[in-house]
Amino acid sequence: MATEIRTPGTLPPLPPYVPPGGPRRPPRRRRTGESLSTWRYGDRVAFALCWACGLALCLIAAAIVVYLGVRGVQYLTFTLLTTHPEAGLDQAKTGGFLDPIVGTVLLTVIGIAIATPIAVGTAVWIVEYGRPSAFARAVESGIEIVAGTPDIVIAIFGLALFQQHLFAPLSLTADGGAVFGRSFMTAGAMMSLIALPMVFGTTREGLQAVPAHVREASYGLGKTRIATIRRVLLPSVRSNISTGMALGMGRICGDTAVVIVLLGATLRLESEGSIPGFNALKGTGSTLTSYVYNNSPAGEGNAPQKAYAAAFVLLLIVVALNLAVDVIARRGSQTGLQNGRLGA
Amino acid sequence: MITLDTDDDRGTGAAVRLAQDHPAAGPTLPPPVRRIALDRPPTVASPAPVGTGPGAAAAARHVRSGERGPERMRLEGLSVFYDTNEAVRAVDLSIRQGEVLALIGPSGCGKTTLLRTLNRLTELTATARRAGRVVLDDVDIDELEVTTLRRRVAMVFQQPNPFPMSIFDNVAYALREQSRKRPGRAVVQPYVEEALRRAGLWDEVKDDLDRPALRLSGGQQQRLCIARAIATRPEVLLMDEPCSALDPRSTEVIESLIGELRAELAIVIVTHNLQQAHRVGDHVAFMYLGDLVEYGAAEQVFGAPRAERTRDYVGGAFG
Questions:
Q1: Which of A261, A295, B8, B16 could make an S-S bridge to A155, C-beta 3.0–4.6 Å?
Q2: Does B51 score more than 60 pLDDT?
Q3: Could A217 and B163 be called an inter-chain contact, meaning their C-beta atoms sit closer than 8 Å?
Q4: How far apart are CA A47 and CA A49, in angstroms?
């Protein structure tokens, strides 16, 4: 081989590399799994049923999305999104559903803002302290009961609670002194119970997945328990908390019972009192779910086209939240200690 | 023959036997290399290569002068129980600055428990109880605030366990929170740099301090953990088998790091690896079933062990 030294500038350009025998392709993977023909008949039937169930679920989900998509595109107009609803007999004059959209967002934000700190705090206490253990078990089963309670029961309970005079500042007080009990604040407080088990579950799973040696490393550096929680544990379960929040927000968006019983399900956002900002929270309103219900043939509005359009918007919001869950979980699995989606 | 390591076989262990039979006679020998050989009885150990290899180089590093550094920690009749099981039995030891104390012994002999007692990490185990006194600079460790104690007696664990945050934050975390007000990046930056330099990691990570620490290699992660532990300028550094999860190259880097850190602090290292104990240890304590069987200078424990059990263990008869 010649040992002539050339400077980089004088090197001739290399011809494109052609591997011998044409372009290489990785060899095709061969299936070496077991053959179905060796299975018992019962197993084959069960296997086929599993496939069928999965496919059926996909079909149902696709049917909902496609049907609502078609209807939504058919009836949804930009003006529907930007105009206030009106009362009226003529469908052309009943306006759009700007107020329900605002109501949905407002209620979701209130609900999740109340639920997240309580749920995260409870999860931290259960996993990191959890003593006495009988009390910890009681807390856990309490949350399970809240998770299993039907939303209409939560709504009725909320109404009974917030009509007490103690909670008069949260909603309208009538002339005789009767407390109305219905407002964004009372509905949001009860909605938080619906989101709370979600956030609690994902946070607890995340904390339990943090290996013990990480905690020991922190204690070994002379950190207190609370510093460890704040600076190490909570940052590493951030993605779990976000996942739980997104799931909880999906649940709040989709809930109807609490809206109808506790939010008043009024056509428009009705303010109450004279403090700017606070008056909207103290007032009543509606969300997309109650709007869909009222405009469906079962409700008093009976404007199915608008119901479809609103349902489509609601579906978009929920699908977007689900996508957010996936994105957060995936990002968390790349950077955090946990692998994959937990407790979702 | 299936041999699981690549060292050449030299001799038949005669040199070691000679040293054991006549402790005062020959020169100090490193402990034998234990290897898994399927066609030989399991208790036979081959002698270490004499005069070559990393062992010889390490031996030259040792501070073998008669003068010893100041005593930092003293254990007086220390016993540790798990429920009723006595894991460490009435151990008296002194830990001095400027030297490395290597704790050796078979699995389950209480080495790690002893180590974790020194900064009261055993208190995290609900069933652990302690008797006897541990004194740090003439103060009983029970009288110190536990967080203060752990900052003065820092710990490096067997598994590299950086926190899921950036390299910078890993070291800064150890420094922050000691003050009521959270110091900013500019304030802790010089301390972080110094800790990373002392741990020999600065040149490798100085350009991307914001990378997640979990992306580092295992050896780098362990050096990061050492940097994190020494960032608070502890007086004693406890190391629980710091190299057992690492490859030989990273092990060598960390061992030479231990040799450098020795001048500034007292180091206690638990190791299963007798070669490593000989390479890094100035003094060696051999524990067996909770008892401190033998304590002495490394040459003495490996070259002329007083107790029979020590002789058997360092000679490779059991463990």
A1: A261
A2: no
A3: yes
A4: 5
